[in-house]
Amino acid sequence: NQPESILIERVSKRVNIHKISQEEFLFLKNISKNTLFETYQKIVKITGKEFEIGALFNKFIINGIIINFKTKEPS
Predict the structure, then answer these.
(1) Gyration radius of the chain's alpha carbons
(2) Where is 19: in which H helix or E strand?
């Protein structure tokens, strides 16, 4: 059973919660650690899926997520 990941987005006084895929979580986690490009293959190995890295960059930049964020591992 795979744990679910969520993205909590704070926009002014609003808080938006979005369910994100394992690839998206690992992408954000590795961006926050400045290790994304070194670990792309590791993400593919963990998830078993190829993904378009440019599409994820675009998605999170357009939505204002890749500005300032933190990731937290499930407990």
Answers:
(1) 12
(2) strand 14-20
DSSP classification of residue 68: S
pTM above 0.90, yes or no: no
Helices 53-62, 22-32: axis angle to 10 degrees equals 80
The number of residues making up the chain comes to 75
For residues 46 and 71, what is the distance between their CA atoms, to the nearest angstrom? 18
> Is residue 37 pLDDT above 70, yes or no?
no
Count of CB atoms situated within 10 Å of the CB of 28: 21
- Helices 36-47 & 22-32, crossing angle to 10 degrees? 160
